[in-house]
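Dear Dr. H.,

I hope your travels went smoothly. While you were away I took the liberty of generating a structure for the chain from your last submission, since the lab meeting agenda had it listed for discussion. I wanted you to have the full record in hand beforehand rather than looking at slides cold. The sequence, exactly as received, is reproduced here:
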Amino acid sequence: NCVHPGLLLICTVASKVWDAETKPIDFLCNRATRRDLNITKCSGITTLSTPVQLPCTELHVTSWENKSHQEKRGDIGASLRLLIEGVKVLRGLSHPGCMASLLQRLENNINNYLLILTNLQLSGPTVSPSLSCIPRSSQSLRTVLLRYNQLISGKLEQFMVNLENRCTNSVTQQRF
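The corresponding predicted structure, in token form, is as follows:
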């Protein structure tokens, strides 16, 4: 039983790749993993060919704390869906290499966040996603990326921090 050296190398490399099937609880409990999904910009490209609707990023702590986990998830999800629609439109247009790569990564990251949010096990009644603001548009790449990062580092991060008590429970349950 001889194993082909090339196949062995592929298997070794594949075993080192981060598990794409990570559970939402793993994402919830690891801030570094959440930060790995941040996006950098392309140098020299500042204006987009079409406006993109911006996500709702303002976080009013008092009203945010009064929302249920379901409402928070709905708010963040609605903002991510709004943004991804604009990114998909932009991706459908012709863009140079860096911009095409950046838009692909942004779309992938937003999809990952939406999957994680959707699969989080939350108690309480299901709430329809709704925006917490009247969306504005921008053709500035810098503004779009800034708002995306504000949404992720603001509302989403605050939501994850609110759910961190599940981390110790999850770790305890996995040990037994």
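Two observations you may find useful: The first helix runs from residue 5 to 16. The first strand starts at residue 47 and ends at 53.

With kind regards,
E. W.
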